[in-house]
Design goal:
By secondary structure, the protein is mainly alpha-helical. The protein has three helices and no strands. It has a domain at 8-35.
Amino acid sequence: MARDMSDKELLKMELEQLQKEVKNERMPISTTAKELADWVEAHVGEDPLVKGVPEDKNPYKEKGGCVIT
């Protein structure tokens, strides 16, 4: 798509994107990091990567072992 556009059209698209981005509300990282940490701590009980998946609900559980005779 970008190959079919002239330099002027590409610059216009870039300018429009930058104008959208400048309108985004900015917050200090100290505030957002605290909010993120609080959210993670509040949802840690629901996280399968932290508490694990029950054996009966694990779709990747091995069905059987390998037997070599």
